TrEMBL record:
UniProt keyword annotations, A-Z: Lyase, Metal-binding, Zinc
Organism for this UniProt entry: Tothia fuscella
Keyword Zinc among record annotations: yes
Name by which UniProt lists this protein: CENP-V/GFA domain-containing protein
Cross-referenced InterPro entries: CENP-V/GFA, Mss4-like_sf
Amino acid sequence: MPKGSCLCGKSGVEFKTYPEFKILCYCTDCKKVSGSIFGCSILIPKSEVTTKGSLKQVTVHAESGRPITNSFCPDCGTTLFREGPILPDTIIIKTGVLDDAVDFENLKPMGEAYTCNRPEWVTHRVGEQYVGAPPGL
């Protein structure tokens, strides 16, 4: 079962199946959460996800204008996953928290979102290109 953890190891997440939807995102919110120029996320049904340790939540409004709740380790601050009302039965796991390099190979993104915010020097493209959010998100 794929699993991930925070920087200090006190909090974590596991899921039972590999996701069908994997995406790179250049929206401002994903950049802030990841501390990088993009975020990489996988969408997993809530029923397939279990968490470990304590988590703290903060809800913000994403670039789309919709609320999104970030769940993170209260000790080190690593965001493990996100969720929101647009996808009520889904957990958005940040792939950077996964513990096994094999999982990264199985989770190649199928596209890129908010490419309007992508720096021009990022020339490599992955899958479908969306100027904003992908359809249904």
